[in-house]
Amino acid sequence: MRFQGFFAETLRRWGKDRRGAAAIEFAFVAPVLLVLYMMTMEVSQAIDTNKKVSRIASLTADLVTQEQDIIKSEIDAIMTLSEAVVAPYNRSKPTVEIDAISIDATSKATIAWSRKYVNGVASDHIAKGTIVTGIPAKLILPSTFLIRSHGKLTYTPLVSWMATSTPGSWTTSTTSIEMDEVYFLRPRIASTVTCADC
């Protein structure tokens, strides 16, 4: 009998005792707040990285269109700037494709020269004379010239990257987002941008 009374009295005291309530509430709320914080940071970094991919396409197209004559090494140097643009993001390398498109009097668009930059290596891209599709109709004007720059990046979220880059990690798959942007610009100095050794 005494034990039951003692037990009931102890439960009543625990029920009235408010010491440590804040710690318990914090223990429930903290993980939720931490997840929300990480998600907010990840989304903001993804948006910022996507803007940088857009900047890669516009920057490379802009620099090429300021030339009248260009050579492979100059095009390649322009494309290497893409890595500096996305810095400090370093979970994957950007890809850049620059195509010079000649549109003849019949509005037929073909490749004049083309270069690409993938994983830090520049090379030829599309063969000269290849018919080009996917150009916005408003840009297809007879006897004109276009520079098309295509910037791409495989964005890997930080949590996924950390999980897969750690030895013995809990997962082997990565979640990634493909980001890309295409810019079309016309030459500024002359009617065309020629590449002698492309």
Reconstruct the topology from this structure.
Layout: H1 2-16, H2 21-65, E1 69-70, H3 72-86, E2 95-103, E3 109-118, E4 121-124, E5 144-155, H4 158-165, E6 177-185, E7 194-195
Parallel strand pairs: 1-7
Antiparallel strand pairs: 2-3, 2-5, 3-4, 5-6
Helix pairs in contact: 2-3
How does this structure look, described?
The chain is an alpha+beta fold and 198 residues long. The chain has one domain. It is built from four helices and seven strands. The strands form two sheets. Strands 4-3-2-5-6 form a five-stranded antiparallel sheet, with helices on one face. A two-stranded parallel sheet has the order 1-7. Helix 2 (21-65) packs antiparallel against helix 3.
* Largest sheet: number of strands, sense, barrel closure: 5 strands, antiparallel
Uncertain stretches of 5 or more adjacent residues:
167-173
Tell me which oligomeric state these chains represent: single chain
Indicate the mean pLDDT.
Answer: 86
Question: What's the structural domain tally?
Answer: 1
Number of E strands = 7
Order of helices and strands: HHEHEEEEHEE
Helix content: 40-55%
Characteristics:
single chain; 198 residues; alpha+beta; five-stranded antiparallel β-sheet; 7 strands; 42% helix; rod-shaped
Concise structural overview:
By secondary structure, the chain is of the alpha+beta class.
